[in-house]
Amino acid sequence: MKRYKGHCRLIKIGKILIASITIMLIVTGCNGDKAVSSNQDNDEVIGDVTPSNKPCSILTVTNQNVATKYSYTGELRPVQEYDVSLEIPGLIKDVGNYQVGDLVKKGSLLASNDTQQLHINYDRAVLAVEDALIKKQQLEKGTKNDQITSAEATLTRNNLRYQQIEIEYERTQKLYEQGAIPYTQVENLLNQLELTKQDIKQAQSQLNLLINSVEEEDVRKAEIAYQQALLNQREAELKLENTKLYAPTTSVVITKYVENGQNIAAGQPIFRLAEDNLLKVIIDIPLAELETLEQAAEVQVIKNDSIRKGTINKISNIVTSGLASIEVEIHIDNKDGAFRIGDAVDVKYGIEQSSVMLPIEAVMNVDRSFVFVIVDDKAIRRDITLGIPVNNKIQVFGIDEGERVVVAGMERLRDGDNITIIEEYAE
Questions:
Q1: Thinking of the domain 273-352, which architecture would CATH place it in?
Q2: How many Å apart are CA 139 and CA 229, to the nearest integer?
Q3: Pairing mode, if any, of strands 404-408 and 54-60?
Q4: What share of the chain is helix, strand, coil (3-state, %, to 5)?
Q5: How far apart are the C-alpha atoms of 92 and 94, rounded to whole Å?
Q6: What is the pTM (predicted TM-score) of this model?
């Protein structure tokens, strides 16, 4: 009986083991099925399993006209500006009539020199011509006695003039030492003394020559001296004419270099003038936008409510270092004077381009912008360049008209994925 009971116990244990093994196999089988299902959800190929197509919506794109506007700011400057000066050195006057910013009409007197000394030089030149002519005529006639008499008279006249100037010089020197007059008056008399001394020396030489003899060579020299005297007279006359500075054109004073009472050198600038009938504005534009400017039908220059048509005059050949921009010079007609030099203005222009526009949400960005284009039912990644946004769309370069682009479901896509189109749109 005991042996039977033991046998029954062994049978029971065996049944339990068989049941346990069966349960383990069932659990294992279930887990295996679950793993395969999970792998299929992750689209991983196991053995001969094919990945499922991914659903997405696509848009067949067409070119659209896109109006693009550009705006820059700048300052109006003159196209023509230049310095004006007097050709004759000396004390400046009449320069106080105009200040920076004043409008100067063509032909207006801008400045002049003190002409006192120049008038003296001119008078002396006239007398020298008369003396040279007399000497020439006397030599040509051969009247030696008359020539000697004339030479003596000239020498006497020069000596007398020297004495008069010397007396005036001594009087003026005392006034200067008392502070009653400027040194320029003393300096003028010193110059006259020196010149008169030279005249005396010349007159004495002429008298000595006549006393010795009068020859044909002397006649020739007298002619040369006469011609030289005429040239000296003309030079003195021109200097007097060049003591006044007139505005060459109607213009604006933008710089004033000197004031009344200053001594200036010949050619020293007195004013800087600028013509305001033609103005310019220089703008810096990115190199990427240069082509758009060249395509623009019209450029507008705007100050408040005033609008002028601008003309592109020059595009620089030098790129601004570090900014990848370039200078563009734009001219505007300002004959009515509505704009002023130094005005801040806006420069605006626009172009119309035919290009692809995509919904903003269709554009992905990882390192750079891209979209998915449908090629043979596959999603192919395409890098693109973005343009301007318009409402809820954005201008796209790198996509051709007629191509189909994923506009929904792209966040689940990878390059080369098979797709199933659930919705297709056309613009």
A1: Beta Barrel (2.40)
A2: 17
A3: antiparallel
A4: 40, 35, 20
A5: 7
A6: 0.50
